[in-house]
């Protein structure tokens, strides 16, 4: 059955049904916006009100460049005034017309009220909350990632205009998921640095780019819709695990892992996303707190990557250096001087305002370093239109928050992310069901769908709401019975399991909603095992054993869970992973369950078996196998998994054809280019010229790959085409394979779609060796797509 017409019909009916429910917030048009307490700094009427003559202030002269204007502004300030502008709550200087500004706002997956810069009130009571990032990542749809950023920045700009938000948002989180126990998996785009970097680039562009504006030659004059921030730089992914926390943790990281894994998303965020802020993390890297490391900040971010923006600390990072790491036994002024010299421009906290003046007076740091940082900060605010209005956002107001289109995109994001993990005998989509049992601690959740760094949503659609309303609208379900099964996600006892079994006994189908929430995996809370919490496993097994009809298991979690038992249980016919799907989650889940949408998401992380985490401590940073520890992520671990990275099936079936050209590449080495010796496990495989260093070569070769995806089933479907490269066999420490490109496509039943990729040889077939050289090895590389592969033979003539 082709179902493409079903979705719009259901969505319209559903929105209508919801609009009448009493707990909906009004989604009405824009009326009576309250203006901000000022519209923009260089508004002449502001200066007149303050009895100042704006003509005298060159920093308001639009004919000058932002850098010149920022310098004029900074040069007017006394040392006292300067340091008061260097904490997240900048105090302003009224004598020259400079207002206060709160730098800290957040917008990880919707405008959030986590930072003090943003709040909800009667004027704007809520904003659109999208799925948490790990689910949105599972869509592998770059245009969706960017669209979400665009919607979030429109809502942010609207809230700024009515005085409810700032313009600087400290999102996204671009740390790589190195270990499955990490509590902040939900905030990220998963374990692959290329995917995380691609997500970051799209989301940042969605947030920052002013639609229709051309990129100027001077990046310091590029206008910003809102300012985005890639965080937490770097090698940050231990929160709190068995007595080790981020405020004390020293990550021991090789240069190889730094380049290849930890810094790659930040590099893409800066170079490809042109982000205007980077946040340094709490942890130390190889002994040095990241916010105090001049190599990491001034050297890599500003120097190598040519960053244009400001570097901010994670909140109270300088205090953490002093009290947590006790670094160099520094007190406030030494610590502040160190971080300023290293390149930290803004302190989320009070250490800069409280200590920098004395640091300068004692000669620990030059005032010119303060000026430099303030210049970066004011140029960003100028690019944002804080000083002169950006015309095209002037009329954006509260009527642009929680619009029908925005809410529809939130449910679309959840639909696109949901991953079908098992579907024996085509149990899903669910057809006509008289009595449907809906069971589990997640069946009627609301806030748990939002994860962390959320705000107040426009509304909620719980799974139970979604299933009930959809089932009735479609007339496929006569009767829904609900049983919670456990009192909450922790599921500390089995007291509610018996009633849940009863409910399943005479239902024609049973849907079980289980998983985790922020009480299990969160910031400052890493997991110690990968099992479902408490009695959830028992709940599932017992309900499955007693159920009359097929059982469908829906996992709502951020990180992977070891559900091998459910995969092996024949009564459990289907398994879906629905992440933490945002305010519209229940709508998306119901749409997938009843077949209005054919799921096409793929797991952005490996789902390990629980044994895995007993084999290595969370604090061991290497990605490659070391000291009897297994490797990490699909690139370096090929042991058993519950589900591998990239896994996800569909209600239809796809087959692939793959062509690539050319099949061989001969590089003529330049006179100054040398062959680079490379260790092979098998000496015979080492060729005469094993590799070249990429830095020394032009890298103008491209490999074109065309993938034809056939939908050989009877339903329209969505498929993510994932292309990997695998290096020639036998190179010490090389990854098993690495993702080099992906694209999500919609393929109608019986049809095919051709997907084209063009891969730069140096970007897509390189390896980083133990000495942190970026190399192109000679020999037979593989290109892999699903079950198909092609070979690329690279050789060097010298
Ligand atoms: C990708 O997302 C966009 C929404 O931004 C959607 O319109 C499009 O259909 C999606 N593509 C696929 C193949 O699912
Ligand atoms: C579902 O949760 C909502 C509040 O979150 C509550 O009002 C409602 O009664 C619950 N539904 C059932 C059937 O328990
Ligand atoms: C089960 O847990 C709930 C919530 O923690 C508690 O209220 C209840 O008393 C417990 N029941 C038993 C039998 O321990
Ligand atoms: C997909 O292919 C498998 C194996 O050939 C088959 O068992 C299954 O019925 C097919 N499913 C669909 C939806 O076409
Ligand atoms: C090859 O391996 C040896 C011993 O493990 C090591 O000392 C050397 O640096 C390696 N050479 C390269 C090019 O990686």
From TrEMBL:
<protein>
    <recommendedName>
        <fullName>Fibronectin type III-like domain-containing protein</fullName>
    </recommendedName>
</protein>
<dbReference type="InterPro" id="IPR036962">
    <property type="entry name" value="Glyco_hydro_3_N_sf"/>
</dbReference>
<feature type="signal peptide">
    <location>
        <begin position="1"/>
        <end position="21"/>
    </location>
</feature>
<keyword id="KW-0326">Glycosidase</keyword>
<dbReference type="GO" id="GO:0046556">
    <property type="term" value="F:alpha-L-arabinofuranosidase activity"/>
</dbReference>
<keyword id="KW-0732">Signal</keyword>
<dbReference type="GO" id="GO:0009044">
    <property type="term" value="F:xylan 1,4-beta-xylosidase activity"/>
</dbReference>
<dbReference type="InterPro" id="IPR017853">
    <property type="entry name" value="GH"/>
</dbReference>
<keyword id="KW-0378">Hydrolase</keyword>
<dbReference type="Pfam" id="PF14310">
    <property type="entry name" value="Fn3-like"/>
</dbReference>
<dbReference type="InterPro" id="IPR013783">
    <property type="entry name" value="Ig-like_fold"/>
</dbReference>
<dbReference type="InterPro" id="IPR002772">
    <property type="entry name" value="Glyco_hydro_3_C"/>
</dbReference>
<dbReference type="GO" id="GO:0031222">
    <property type="term" value="P:arabinan catabolic process"/>
</dbReference>
<feature type="domain" description="Fibronectin type III-like">
    <location>
        <begin position="719"/>
        <end position="789"/>
    </location>
</feature>
<dbReference type="Pfam" id="PF00933">
    <property type="entry name" value="Glyco_hydro_3"/>
</dbReference>
<dbReference type="InterPro" id="IPR001764">
    <property type="entry name" value="Glyco_hydro_3_N"/>
</dbReference>
<dbReference type="InterPro" id="IPR044993">
    <property type="entry name" value="BXL"/>
</dbReference>
<dbReference type="InterPro" id="IPR026891">
    <property type="entry name" value="Fn3-like"/>
</dbReference>
<dbReference type="GO" id="GO:0045493">
    <property type="term" value="P:xylan catabolic process"/>
</dbReference>
<dbReference type="Pfam" id="PF01915">
    <property type="entry name" value="Glyco_hydro_3_C"/>
</dbReference>
<dbReference type="InterPro" id="IPR036881">
    <property type="entry name" value="Glyco_hydro_3_C_sf"/>
</dbReference>
